[in-house]
Write a structure and sequence with these properties.
Layout: E1 3-8, E2 11-16, H1 17-24, E3 33-37, E4 40-44, E5 52-53
Antiparallel strand pairs: 1-2, 1-5, 3-4
Length: about 55
């Protein structure tokens, strides 16, 4: 299982690759994505190109 990292409020957050895949395949107009993580609703308003792979 691949984990990627994003920056949010200055903190690194790891997200499972399969979750990010569905975000990256979203239409270009979807500039904000709401995701459920550990029961918390997080809103990501960032360009998809800002997602980076974490070194394993």
């Amino acid at each position: 299982m691949e984990i990627r990292s994003i920056q949010m409020d200055g903190k690194d957050i790891g997200i499972i690759d399969s979750v990010l895949k569905s975000i990256e395949e979203a239409p270009s107009w979807a500039d904000a994505t709401t995701m459920k993580m550990d029961g918390n609703c997080l809103v990501y308003g960032m360009e998809f190109s800002s997602f980076q792979k974490m070194d394993e």
